[in-house]
Amino acid sequence: MQTPFDVFEELAPAPGRLDELVAPVAAALRDWRGPVPASEVRYVETDPAVADTAAFVERYGAGLLAASATCVIVAAKRGGETTLAACLIPSAARADVNGAVRRHLGARKVSFAPMDTAVGRTGMEYGGITPIGLPADWPLLVDASLLDLERVLIGSGRRVGKLVVPGKVFAQLPGVDVLPGLAG
Q1: Cβ-contact 53, 65 below 8 angstroms
Q2: What sequence ranges are listed for the domain YbaK/aminoacyl-tRNA synthetase-associated (predicted)?
Q3: Burial class of residue 126, CB neighbours in 10 A (0-12, 13-18, 19+)
């Protein structure tokens, strides 16, 4: 049976490719705990020129859109305090920032974090931010629909390369809250 991931020549176990990953992602895989073994997280080399979702699916195939997720960093403000959080949503959707995200974080206002803040605080490249290896004290909001997918394509922390993970992995990441309707 064909899968959207068949377009890639090699899906290598990510723990064997730690040198291809940014430090926080490599550390998270090295220290991996949970019911899904780290060896089930796969790494695939991709063209960094097409790291953004629309260009990526145009290059590698539209079938990947339904099997992909995007990780965005948001800044939630309340009472003069700003909290950074990550949202993982299906790539074909948008995060419900002003509804579900704002309510869940108890914020007065939520906006997408500036690029330099997202990159600086995650240690990852813009266009490659992934939920694996985020700061452990950050809330990680995951759209519930992603847990039902057999495998999901996500960033690797760099624009070159992606990770392919079982959807159930997201429930075991630090700081996770799985929310139905996170994607609007």
Answers
A1: yes
A2: 52-165
A3: middle
Under a CB-based contact definition with an 8 Å cutoff, are residues 171 and 42 in contact?
no
Give the confidence band of 73 by pLDDT, cuts at 50, 70, 90. Answer: very high
Kindly report the backbone phi and psi dihedral angles of residue 22, in degrees, each rounded to the nearest multiple of 5, phi listed first.
Answer: -70, 160
Q: Which amino acid is it at 73?
A: I
Structure-token pair, residue 152: 């999901």
Cα angle value 178/183/184 (rounded, 5°)? 140
DSSP 114: P
pLDDT, tens only, 50-68: 888 888 888 888 888 899 9
Distance CA 138, CA 159 (A): 22
Six-digit token string for 95:
């995060």
CATH entry, 4-171, from 3.40.50.10680, 3.90.960.10, 3.40.50.720, 3.40.50.1820: 3.90.960.10
List, in sequence order, every residue forming a beta bridge with 154; answer none if it has no partner.
163
| Alpha helices (H) in the chain, listed in sequence order | 23-30, 53-60, 102-105, 115-122
Q: Would you kindly state where each structural domain of the chain is located, as residue ranges? A: 4-171
Structure token pair of residue 134: 């985020």
- The residues, ordered by sequence, that sit 6+ positions from 141 with a Cβ below 8 Å of its Cβ are 85, 86, 87, 88, 100, 101, 104, 176, 177, 179, 182
